[in-house]
Amino acid sequence: MTNRCILQMALLLCFCTVALSRNYNLLRSQLRSSNSACQNLLRQLNGTYCREDRMNFEVPEEIEQPQQLQKEDAVLVIYEMLRQTLGIFRRNFASTGWNETIVERLRAEVHLQMDRLETNVDEITEKENFTWENTPVPHVRKYYARIVQYLKAKKYSRCAWTTVQAEILRNFSFLTGLLDYLQN
Ligand SMILES: *[C@@H]1O[C@H](CO)[C@@H](O)[C@H](O)[C@H]1NC(C)=O
Ligand SMILES: *[C@@H]1O[C@H](CO)[C@@H](O)[C@H](O)[C@H]1NC(C)=O
Ligand SMILES: *[C@@H]1O[C@H](CO)[C@@H](O)[C@H](O)[C@H]1NC(C)=O
Ligand SMILES: *[C@@H]1O[C@H](CO)[C@@H](O)[C@H](O)[C@H]1NC(C)=O
């Protein structure tokens, strides 16, 4: 009886792992297409012109060498980048003259990606012994906090937004690169 139970559990575990692997491959392709949609939308936010400030938001070291990231960390980093991006595009961009419809679509697309990642994120964070401090996420948060700080300091000016938009656009290409780490 016990043996049978163990066998069943082993089978179940096996099945779950397979399901998860498939899940990651599917996830990767979904995120990839959603990401390029986001980049296209961001490029359409070009109603006004302003020279981009040369700002260094100090990219976290851990992120600069993504090849050292574990798959789990990559998932958490991607999720956090999306969450922070959404937060930024909920801020006051009245000075930019951006098309609201485009921004709304961008937010919806980012949100969609977050929804797709949610199960994977829960799975990781609900593990025993999980702590955020052991992940690169706190560094990612600080990086985005510097971006927000900059926007605030510049009173959400058109030029500040141009700089931030360019930075976020580069982040999306970076994010696309991170997706390669969601392999099995
Ligand atoms: C903004 O970009 C879109 C798509 O690339 C283009 O069709 C449009 O003419 C551009 N708008 C301005 C003001 O340059
Ligand atoms: C905003 O973008 C949408 C979708 O591309 C377009 O239909 C609409 O005309 C634009 N609005 C303005 C004010 O340019
Ligand atoms: C959790 O941490 C404790 C104490 O550090 C350790 O004994 C245990 O093996 C860890 N469990 C897992 C699943 O890593
Ligand atoms: C944002 O984009 C830059 C430029 O590609 C990249 O180096 C950086 O790592 C990105 N930021 C984060 C938090 O990943």
TrEMBL record:
InterPro entries per the record? 4_helix_cytokine-like_core, Interferon_alpha/beta/delta
Protein keywords: Antiviral defense, Cytokine, Disulfide bond, Secreted, Signal
The record's subcellular location field reads: Secreted
UniProt keyword Phosphoprotein, yes or no: no
* Leader peptide range in chain numbering: 1-21
Keyword Transit peptide listed? The answer is no
Instruction: Tell me the superkingdom of the source.
Output: Eukaryota
Family recorded in the similarity comment: Belongs to the alpha/beta interferon family.
Task: Return the protein name.
Answer: Interferon beta
- The record's gene field reads LOC101402630
